[in-house]
Amino acid sequence: MTLLGETDTAAGKKGSEGEVLAIRGGRALSGTVEVKGAKNLVTKAMVAALLGEEPSVLRDVPDISDVAVVRSLLEVHGVRVEEGPEPGSLRLDPSEVESAHFEEIDAHAGASRIPILFCGPLLHRLGQAFIPDLGGCRIGDRPIDFHLDALRKFGAVVEKQPSGIRLSAPNGLRGANIHLPYPSVGATEQVLLTAVRATGTTELRNAAIEPEIMDLIAVLQKMGAIISYEPNRVIVIEGVAGLRGYDHRAIFDRNEAASWACAALATDGEIFVGGARQQEMLTFLNVVRKVGGDFDVREDGILFGRGGRLRGVTVETDVHPGFMTDWQQPLIVALTQAHGRSIVHETVYENRFGFTDALVKMGARIQVYPNGLQEGPRRVPRRSLEQAAVIEGPTPLTAADITVPDLRGGYSHVIAALTASGVSTVRNIGIIRRGYADFLDKLSGLGADFDVIG
């Protein structure tokens, strides 16, 4: 089986993004996949290594392009990144951190938003930082105002330039009282990575509390940080003068685990997701049960499949412990095969239903309401940006020519093509490598029938 091709360049501007799959659908996916460390923790833990005065070791690192981007950004700042003591681990030595020219940062950052999280650590280490224009999946606006406002409160000077944003800390960084308007994961990470070495105490209110955030707190505590999690989304950080390295095994990727679970539901297969844990997926597992799916929690993973006929459900995305926005796209593919009406309220991003156009092209009956639905009981309060998708099922899917729009949407298109009858052409699949390691190998191991044709 041909893999996704040569490793993406650090910039993410070349490599495998233009690759094409010819997928022969109509076959149930069955077998075992192993999930490694979460993309949303691993990349942030790599940045945290900048704060240490000693090398760090990170384990269960997935072979994905986002990791390659962060590795390159660390290396242009003088961090020595090497293979660690076991397969899938990295050793990160920050002892020779130095400034990088903005052109180098821009070249290596590519479509990643990760440079914004370098700011706090670099301000501590070097007194300055630079953020190029930020990219990423086109699923809605992700303003960096939360980040910049927080950094200003720590004492950073923010200067907007034509090529990006330059930050400096002429008087050092000091603790601050910060209240996030929304429990943003990225802004919470920013505050944590900045506050741990700021002078004084920082109180962060309305913080994100995702499992990956808690795992990042665990990483920082291993390094010598003093961080308390208080009731009602409050995190208190007491700044310290210095931090050491860490040795940490990353939390599993619950987004990938949920994606494979949805693939089992959509194709009427049975997939064992090795490394998945129940506690971090409680909300998702409840929805699997409501939709008529089945799961068996085991010591080393979770087995997913249909428990019978799938039925329609109503789901509202939200921050943790709600139903993750990253879960709704693969779930919608499964819901096209459910009996009755399903409604998915998207309350986190304002443009995450664009991928459904391809599903409609394949025969799905999906109506998107750009301003959401007014009626019906709600668990999550209505938000001005929200949309809703109404899915009527079951509908047989037929092959189509599809272009991948973003990471989760792209995965969902592949699963839809595997569910559909006929031969589908799926283009631009390299985007999927941002978050799914060994993707085509895993598909092949589950019995998928496809060829790489580009």
In short:
By secondary structure, this protein is α+β, with helices and mostly antiparallel strands. It is 29% helix and 24% strand. The protein is built from 13 helices and 23 strands.
Q: What do these coordinates show?
A:
With 454 residues, the chain is of the alpha+beta class. The chain contains 13 helices and 23 strands. It has a four-stranded mixed β-sheet with strand order 21-22-1-23, covered by helices on one side. Helix 1 packs parallel to helix 2 and helix 8 runs parallel beside helix 12 (407-419). The longest helix is centred in the middle third of the chain and has 14 residues, at 254-267. The protein is globular, with a radius of gyration of 22 Å. Residues 1-16 and 135-141 have low confidence and may be disordered.
List the main descriptive attributes of the protein structure presented here.
23 strands; disordered N terminus; 13 helices; 29% helix; four-stranded mixed beta sheet; 454 residues
